[in-house]
Design goal:
The structure is a single chain. This protein starts with 5 loop residues before the first strand and ends in a 14-residue tail after the last strand. It is built from 18 helices and 23 strands. By secondary structure, the protein is α+β, with helices and mostly antiparallel strands. 29% of the residues lie in helices and 23% in strands. The radius of gyration is 23 Å and the shape is globular. The chain folds into 4 domains: 224 residues, 3-Layer(bba) Sandwich (FAD/NAD(P)-binding domain); 127 residues, D-Amino Acid Oxidase, Chain A, domain 2, CATH 3.30.9.90; 30 residues; 112 residues, Alpha-Beta Plaits. The strands form 6 sheets. Strands 1, 2, 7, 8, 9, 12, 18 and 19 form an 8-stranded mixed beta sheet that branches. A 7-stranded mixed beta sheet has the order 5-4-14-15-16-13-17.
Length: 562
Amino acid sequence: MTDSRDRMEFDVLFVGGGPANLAGAIHLMNMARKKGLELEVCIIEKGSTIGSHSLSGAILDPVALKELMPDYIEKGCPIESAECKDSFYYLTPTSSFCMPFMPKYMNNEGMNNEGYFIISLSKFTAWLGEIAEGMGVNIFPGFPGTEVLYDPGHTRVLGVATGDNGVNKDGKHKPNFEQGIDLIAKATVLGEGPKGSLIRNVGQKMGIFNGKMPQVFETAIKEVIELPEDSPFMASDTTVVHSFGYPLGLNTKGGSFLYKMKDNMISLGLVIGLDYEDPALEPYEAFLQYKKHPLIADIIKDGKVLQQGAKTLSAGGLYTIPQLSVDGALFVGDSASMLNIQRLKGVHTAMKSGMLAAEAIISAVEKNDFTRNTLASYDASFEESWIRDELYEARNFTQAMAKKIIPMAIHLGAQYVTGGRGIKDPLKIEPDSSTLKKLTSKQAEMIDNRTKEEVDGKLHIDKLTGVYLSGTQHEEDQPCHLIIHDLDICSTQCYQLYRSPCTRFCPGEVYEIKKDETSNKIQLKLNPSNCLHCKTCEIKDPFKNITWTCPEGGGGPGYSIV
């Protein structure tokens, strides 16, 4: 905080406009009304609108939504499909086999007499945003939180600073310069999504991840495709298609999804665990291969890609959840690793975490005590909640999936019959940045001479077309938000040992390798305006040489239908 910056003060500040914070804000306002409390509540979101950075057609378990607003149907909840009918396949390079057995945690046709819905996450979050705003919540899209504000001893979170706008690449002010604002709050809720830059800082300052397993992630490349009016798939009863196997094989964690949506559209994607070992793997190329598999190609035949994007998923589960509160702050949703990767669902757990945080905040308001002494009731209520019960059953799932096929099958089978305990509890897990194997000479030659998958510009598109269809926009003349700490590592060690994997694992072609024809020297070139904000680069970089920071407010993807 500096005296020269403007300040705005609130009772509660939510950082991030996703389901966790939106549900938390709505629940907070509901409770405040019932108790006759007047609260100033604010949500800031780095995207240009609420929902513009929320990517995915998703299956929604409505358990938290029903708790939040039992009349959600009457309130106009946007639902793409009111029921789920599953199919589950194992794919080989040329064939598909419908699995005779559906694991209970993948059953989307109703568990505990609950029906599930297919939703567009961008539409769903926009709808929640409208409800929150109608209740008096101040919502400021286009305002990224770039710095956590602490007391002098770094023992209490005081709020968040938003970034400056109108700064050029050299750090000088442009004519349209607008200084950021210090947002001060009695309670700050960080719900930034996976690998949040602010919660990273809190972890460094206040040790909330100490003693926890490392957070691990998966990257998903996703599309919405418009199918022809006479599409057989759209006329069928099936609404959900999950698969595993090709193109990843059985020793790389991941799988695919395909969901039926409204208006002859489907949402499909390939999810890849970022603990993969193969330095030659390129997730985007694997995604194109998935789309060309006979099972999928038959479904999407004559279709057209309307929108594409990428996002990381917090896949670690229970043992990677940080301490959930500190003096002045609470942590919710994917930032706090609440997603249940076993069930391939996280909207309901994110929403419930936000609601539990709101209950702790109301107690703090009533006691006028915003220290951890009061806010830790969030940690306690989480331990007694159905989120914890659900994640407890999946507590070793990601760790088992990280193993090779035979030990993986043994561990998963044991977990299935022991309620998640398995053979060993807890199973250890390694950071995603540590798993990449060094290139063999054969792999290096393959990378140097690789032929890309063919694209047609309509149904199969290249990375740059995907960036365009994501609606991604950034102000070109601004400081690079991707910090490379040592460029020499990129041109020497990283290239020699791995052939610059950032050029492959980035789904937006942000990173390029250029070779000087005269000196033969390798140089890394960045195209930060292509960034999809997935943060795969910071997570997977084997040298931990990349740090993702927020660009100017409003920059990034503009998702609307996925």
